[in-house]
Amino acid sequence: MKQQLTYIIFGTALLLVHFLFSVNLYVYASDVPYIAFSSKRNENYDIYMMDINGKNLQQLTDDLANETYPTFSPDGQRMAYVSSRDGNDDLYVMNLTTKVSDQLTNHPASDHSPAWSPDGRWIAFASERAGTLDIYKIEPSGANLQQLTDANEKNNTPVWSPDGQFIAYRSFKDPSGIYIMDADGGNQSRLENQPNQAWTPAWSPDGKQIAFCAVFFGGYDICILNVDGTDLRRITRHRNGEGSPAWSPDGQTIVFMSWWERTADIYRTDINGIIGNRRRLTRHPAVDMGPTWVPEGFLDVSPTPEKLITQWSRLKQSAEFAESY
Predict the structure, then answer these.
(1) Backbone angles phi, psi at 132, to 5 degrees
(2) CB of 210 within 8 A of CB of 224?
(3) What is the pLDDT of residues 254-283, one digit of tens each?
(4) How high is the pLDDT of residue 90?
């Protein structure tokens, strides 16, 4: 009897330590920043998430259609994205707790490149619904659609300033490049002193700089330029091409897509562009593209009730096994 009691105590203590260790790992993982991106690793594009070390890969969407361009609400509870599940590209919004998606736009034309506003009230996106590619914004409920650009030339890839007052975007008007406008579409102007053929803008968290991709000597590299047009810096240098930069919340790191190893993968580097600080985050023969940072609100700092129940159930089973030994 005494020996059985020893087994029970030992087994229970061992599993309790395992339980607490699992909880600590969960909390630790929640403290690590995450990146979402699109990948074609299952024959079609789906949206995935991983931490900034390239670990803990999770698949967020799973459909036979292509699903791309993830963007998150500021509280991290919802994700807007593009899906072709109804035969053409429309915007959808997923509740990240339930994994249920609702269709946000429904138009025969293509809608893509969504960007959630910092206050959570709007989603800007590009659409061909007026006959050419223009920038629109819509409330996450699907109400109050507004057209922000209206030109014969294409405009796409909108991105909000951190204060929500401005939108940067790529325009094909002459001269083409990165433009900035008020959040209501007014005062459209070209970012000064940018290189030719610049696209995919990304606003820094402090609102003072814009990162983008531009052509240098036949290659596509990531650059940073102050919003006032000063201090142009090229932070990547590679002939195979790079694009789609996204700033980290602290403004010290940029993630981007690169063909550095002749396949499209996700990389990160510091804003100084030091080659030794570049890190490859994905290694897959399929295309990985369009990285974006996941808000901290998405990652709960404590295990779910289901996880707790499962762990304690295993603990109980272990104790019962020890008692019957």
Answers:
(1) -140, 170
(2) yes
(3) 999 998 777 899 999 999 877 667 899 999
(4) 98
Q: What is the pLDDT of residues 141-169, one digit of tens each?
A: 999 999 999 988 899 999 999 999 999 99
Q: What is the mean pLDDT of the chain?
A: 84
**67 located within any domain:** yes
Query: Does residue 77 sit within a domain?
Result: yes
Task: DSSP for 218-269, please give it.
Answer: TEEEEEEEETTS---EE----TT-EEEEEE-TTSSEEEEEE-TTSS-EEEEE
Residues 269 and 131 in one domain: yes
- Which DSSP string do the residues of 47-70 spell out, in sequence order? EEEEETTS-S-EE----SS-EEEE
| Alpha-carbon span 46 to 66, nearest angstrom | 6
Give me the domain span that covers residue 18. 1-33+309-325
> What's this model's pTM, rounded to 2 decimal places?
0.82
78/93 Cα distance (integer angstroms): 7
Residue with tokens 């939108």: 167
Residues 6+ apart with CB under 8 A from 141: none
